[in-house]
Amino acid sequence: MRVGCPKEIKNHEYRVGLTPGSVREYVTHGHDVLFETGAGAGIGADDAAYMAAGAKIAKTAEEVFAKSDMIVKVKEPQPSEWVQLREGQILYTYLHLAPDPAQTSGLVESGVTAIAYETVTDDRGGLPLLAPMSEVAGRLAIQAGATALQKANGGRGVLLGGVPGVLPGKVTVIGGGVVGLNAAKMAAGLGADVTIIDRSIPRLRQLDDIFNGRVHTRYSTVEALEEECFSADVIVGAVLIPGAAAPKLVSREMLSGMKKGAVLVDVAIDQGGCFETSHATTHAEPTYEVDGVIHYCVANMPGAVPVTSAHALNNATLHYGLQLANRGLKAIVDDPHLRNGLNVHKGRITNQAVAEALGYEMVEPRAVIAA
Asked: Which CATH number fits domain 131-304: 3.90.1030.10, 3.40.50.720, 3.90.1300.10, 3.30.260.10?
C-alpha cells in the first residue's frame, strides 16, 4: 500500500502524522511512503531524515493525496483537503466530527473511509490513540492557565503555587479522566490547591488513592460545580463522551459568580467545549474574555509541543496504522477496536455518537463495508 503523509495546515499545527521512525516501520513492512516536503520541520526532522527512513518526497500536498491509498495525518482535514479525498482511500487521523457538521459533510461527499483516532478502542475499554494527546493537553492546560492568570495577560495576577505566607491559587478540574488526572498532577506539583470533580464514585476513589489526599475530590452536582468554579482561579474543562459533543457544564450565567480575571481552560473544545461561552481559538490568539473571565480554548493544544506530542502520538497510532496498511478494509472488519474508529465509509456515517449529534442515519460498520 502507498501511505501518504501531507503537511499539517491548521493554524500553528507543528505535529506530523509520521515520524521518521514510523516511516521506517511502514517501509520495513513492504509499504511505500510518500511524504510532503517540509512536513517534518515542526519536529526538527528534515526531508533527508525521511529519505533515509525510506520515504519518497512529494513536492506538494496535492501529489500526496492523489497518489496515496492511505492518508495519515494528525488534525482533521481542512476544507482544501476534503475535496482531495476520494472513495477507496483511507483517512487515518483525528476527526472530532460531532461538533463539526461542515467537515462531516465534506467527508461524506468524498466517499473516503475515515478512521478517527479518538474513537479507536482497546481491550480495556480505553481510547489508546487519544490518551497520549490527552496526557499532553492535561499537562499543558495548567501551563496555559498559569500564563493566562498573569495580570499582564488579563488574569487575576495569582501565582498558582503561592509563596510562604500567601495562599496558593485554586484549581478546579472538571472530569477525572486522562486529561483531568494529568492536569491535577501538574497543578499539584506546582503547589496549587486542587479539586477534581467527577460523577464516578469509583474513579474518585481511585484518584484519592493516586494523590494520597494531596488533591480534593468531589462528586459532580450543580451545587458542587458552582461552589468550586466560584472559588477557583483556574478551571480546567476535561470532560469527554467518546465521539459525542461535550456537555455544557458551565453556563454563561455562572460566569457572573466567578472571580474577575479567573481563567477557563477548555480542553474539550475539540468536541465542542464544555463551557457554554467557549469557542475554538488558535495558538496565535489563544484567549478571549467574557464577563471578566479569561477563556483559553485552543483546539490543538499539543501542537505547541510538537516534538513531544508527535512522537507520543506515533507510538500509539503505529500499530493500528500498520494493520490498515497490511490488510486494508479487512483489518476494520476483523478488529472491533478499529471498527469503533471507523466514522465514515462511502458516504455513510458509521459512528452512533456522530450520527446522533448531527442527524445522520447510523450504519453498522461491517454491514456498510460488506455492501
From this structure: 3.40.50.720
The catalytic position among 31, 96, 295, 337 is 96
Question: Is 2-127+306-370's fold the same as 131-304's?
Answer: yes
Which residue out of 270, 295, 337, 345 is catalytically annotated? 270
User: In terms of C-beta density within 10 A (0-12 exposed, 13-18 middle, 19 or more buried), how is residue 371 classed?
Assistant: exposed
Is 96 one of the annotated active-site residues of the chain?
yes
- Specify whether 32 is catalytic: no
- At the top level of CATH, the class of 2-127+306-370 is alpha beta
Amino acid identity of 352? Q
pTM beyond 0.85, yes or no: yes
pLDDT digits (tens, 9 = 90+) for 60-85: 999 999 999 999 999 999 999 999 99
Taking only the tens place, the pLDDT of each residue in 242-299 is: 777 789 999 999 999 999 999 999 999 988 999 999 999 999 999 999 999 999 999 9
Using alpha carbons only, what angle is made at residue 110 by residues 108 and 115, rounded to the nearest 5 degrees? 65
Q: Where are the domains of the chain?
A: 2-127+306-370, 131-304
